[in-house]
Design goal:
The chain is mainly alpha-helical. It is built from 11 helices and 3 strands, in the order αβααββαααααααα. Strands 1-3-2 form a 3-stranded antiparallel β-sheet. Strand 2 and strand 3 form a beta hairpin.
């Protein structure tokens, strides 16, 4: 097999495994056995290992020395930290980039919402995750900062696990997902940084409703830092 064809095969297997994880066929915390997967998909063990390495880099699986590879299972603390970090970065971008919110930005975000509304859970979870990332990237790009985008992007490896966790634990349906994102668009459209900050914090508080006290200081921190720039 040529090197190019091997890379394509690894990428194909990676997509199949990713789909199985995001659709819930492979459950959070489930151990992924290389030999079993190689037999199941009729590929070599090395191909499976390479595909799992790619998924590890995306945060969908985690490799544990002498124990094996497992589908990522976010602890409550990890989910909380991820929500806090995204809320802080996006609130900052929305504050410093309030004057960059225009009709094109809002239209692009609205297009994401329309596409989200056409998704069906759990079948379309991979597509929902792609749309969620595109929606929130529109927000982080308001900050007009390469470093800010890099920081935000570094958190995206586990976003699939976070969304799956939210869908399962909170029993969210597509209507809920669209409604929660619509509130963010409406807040940005006001042109008021404080309103956008609060909407983004509340967006992520809904992900971690039991830990609301960890989010209450975010608007104050964002305002202080933004005022010094």
């Amino acid at each position: 097999m040529s090197r190019l064809n091997r890379f394509r095969l690894i990428d194909d297997v990676c997509r199949v495994l990713e789909g199985a994880i995001l659709s819930g066929k492979m459950r959070p915390g489930e151990r992924l056995v290389v030999t079993q997967l190689a037999d199941q998909y009729n590929v070599s063990q090395s191909t499976i290992r390479e595909a799992l390495l790619m998924l590890d880099q995306r945060g969908l699986v985690v490799s544990k020395p002498r124990r094996g590879t497992f589908v990522t299972l976010l602890s409550e603390e990890e989910a909380l930290e991820l929500c806090q970090s995204r809320a802080l970065l996006e609130a900052f971008a929305a504050t410093t980039g309030a004057d960059r919110v225009n009709a094109d930005v809002l239209a692009a975000m609205n297009d994401c919402l329309i596409a989200m509304g056409n998704c069906s859970l759990p079948k379309d979870l991979p597509e929902l995750i792609r749309l969620d990332l595109a929606f929130h990237r529109s927000i982080i790009e308001l900050g007009d900062s390469t470093k800010l985008i890099e920081l935000w992007s570094s958190l995206n490896g586990q976003i699939g696990a976070l969304i799956l966790r939210g869908v399962e634990q909170q029993e969210l349906d597509i209507d809920d997902v669209v409604r929660l994102h619509r509130l963010v668009i409406d807040a940005l459209a006001t042109g008021q940084p404080a309103v956008a900050q609060q909407a983004l914090v509340e967006h992520y508080i809904r992900e971690e409703a039991d830990n609301i006290h960890h989010f209450t200081e975010i608007p104050q921190v964002v305002s202080i830092v933004a005022d010094r720039i």
